[in-house]
TrEMBL record:
It holds the Pfam family TetR_C_30. Keywords: DNA-binding. It comes from Ottowia thiooxydans. Residues 4-64 form the HTH tetR-type domain. Residues 27-46 bind DNA. This is AcrR family transcriptional regulator. The keyword DNA-binding applies. Gene3D superfamilies: Tetracycline Repressor, domain 2 (1.10.357.10). InterPro entries: Homeodomain-like_sf, HTH-type_TetR-like_transc_reg, HTH_TetR, PsrA_TetR_C, Tet_transcr_reg_TetR-rel_C_sf.
């Protein structure tokens, strides 16, 4: 194995072990053994386990975020600044859900890792959110605000987080949906899954606005513009 191949080999090994055992269940030495390299080489490329964990998720999130931004931009351009809520939600959800089903690109491990860290307050999880997830979240909320111009920023942000929770549940690789539906539901039918989730979340956003018909203040409007 060449020196150039080492980082990718380490990332692949780390991704597998983190997904199987969780962040705290894996050491750099175990990752080195899985990658069949010296632990010193792991430390040469990645300063510590937290940095390595961020790199594992960062390389997957970068692909998803690129696709999501392309779709959000397309939705804005087609709508001339007044996008349909369903179109924005689909642009947000579809890249992640499709990737989570792509086993050849590590989608299953990615789904497991996202489920592990989605509500984890520990530094390694918050670092991933801060560096990789929060920027795209702000962009998505910005476009959602154009689809729901009369929903205040605070409520809109909560609704976005509720959407993330639903998405993480939908992409779960546990297969629980098969069990509780007595095999009627197929989690790999992404066409049905995405349409159902978009419809469900659209209703949630609309019902929330109907119940809390508040309008943006000057401060929240400025915050939305700056995000």
């Amino acid at each position: 194995m060449s020196r150039a191949e080492t980082p990718e080999k380490v990332l692949d090994a780390a991704e597998t072990l983190f997904a199987q055992r969780g962040y705290h269940g894996v050491s750099l030495r175990q990752i080195a053994q899985e990658a069949k390299v010296a632990v010193s080489l792991v430390q040469y490329h990645f300063a510590n386990k937290e940095e390595l964990f961020g790199a594992v998720l960062g390389r997957r999130i970068a692909v998803i975020n690129y696709e999501r931004l392309q779709r959000l931009d397309a939705v804005e351009q087609r709508s001339k600044g007044q996008p349909e809520l369903q179109d924005v939600l689909r642009a947000f959800l579809e890249p992640t859900l499709l990737f989570s089903r792509n086993k050849a690109q590590g989608g299953q491990q990615y789904a497991q890792l996202i489920a592990q860290i989605s509500n984890d307050p520990q530094p390694h999880a918050r670092r991933v959110s801060r560096e990789h997830s929060d920027p795209i979240a702000r962009q998505t909320i910005r476009v959602l605000a154009k689809a729901l111009p009369h929903m205040d920023q605070k409520t809109l942000t909560w609704c976005y987080l509720f959407s993330v929770g639903a998405m993480v549940s939908a992409m779960s690789p546990t297969g629980r949906i098969r069990t509780i539906s007595e095999e009627r539901n197929d989690p790999d039918d992404t066409t049905e899954l995405i349409q159902l989730l978009v419809t469900f979340l659209t209703g949630g956003f609309q019902a929330t606005y109907a119940t809390y018909p508040t309008y943006p203040t000057a401060d929240t409007t400025n915050a939305a513009h700056q995000a």
